[in-house]
Amino acid sequence: MSSIAKNTRVTVIPCLRYRDAPAAIEWLCEVFGFEKQFVAANEDGTIAHAQLTFGNGMIMLASVTDSEFGSLMKQPDEIDGAETQCAYLIVSDADLVYERAKAAGAQIVIEIKDEDYGGRGFSCRDLEGHLWNFGTYDPW
Predict the structure, then answer these.
(1) Which residues contact 54 (CB under 8 A, 6 or more apart)?
(2) Which of 24, 64, 114, 124 could anchor a disulfide with 18, C-beta 3.0 to 4.6 Å?
(3) Which domains does the chain have, with CATH numbers?
(4) Among 57, 56, 59, which Cα is nearest to 18's?
(5) Are 54 and 91 contacting, i.e. CB atoms less than 8 angstroms apart?
(6) In the beta sheet, which residues pair with residue 36?
(7) pLDDT digit string, tens, across residues 100-132
């Protein structure tokens, strides 16, 4: 382990941007099982910063803005639905999450299946097209 990471408590927290961040927060919590740890709204109702937890992991998200950081990111619909990064969430029951995602209208892009390397999982897009992967494979 590098000396940089050795004394770091949290290792990786993905950061996302949503056009309708308040709706995305509710959807991610209801459908995928995230929990709101911290949400800071702007006066206009957009989200300045939010932290959603999932088990011992976390994502941070905010509303799409025309800012220094915001200018570095593109939404999936701006690049033909492509993603340059995505998250993998370890779950105990991939079939349950799959059924919830499907029922909520998530676009399933890779059907649920058993993987050759172990585990069972699937991939889907959320309400704004971000790519998510869920599976029972735990590399730890």
Answers:
(1) 32, 33, 34, 35, 89
(2) 24
(3) 3-135 (3.10.180.10)
(4) 59
(5) no
(6) 52
(7) 999 999 999 999 999 999 999 999 999 999 999
Q: Over 60: is that where the pLDDT of 1 sits?
A: no
The pair of three-digit structure tokens given for residue 62, joined into one six-digit string: 């905010």
Assessment of whether the complete model's pTM goes beyond 0.90? no
HEC string of the chain equals: CCHHHHCCCCCCCCEEEECCHHHHHHHHHHHHCCEEEEEEECCCCCEEEEEEEECCEEEEEEECCCCCCHHHCCCHHHHCCCCCCCEEEECCCHHHHHHHHHHCCCEEEEEEEECCCCCEEEEEECCCCCEEEEECCCCC
Residue 105: what are its φ and ψ, rounded to 5°? 90, 10
Single-letter amino acid code for the residue at 99: E
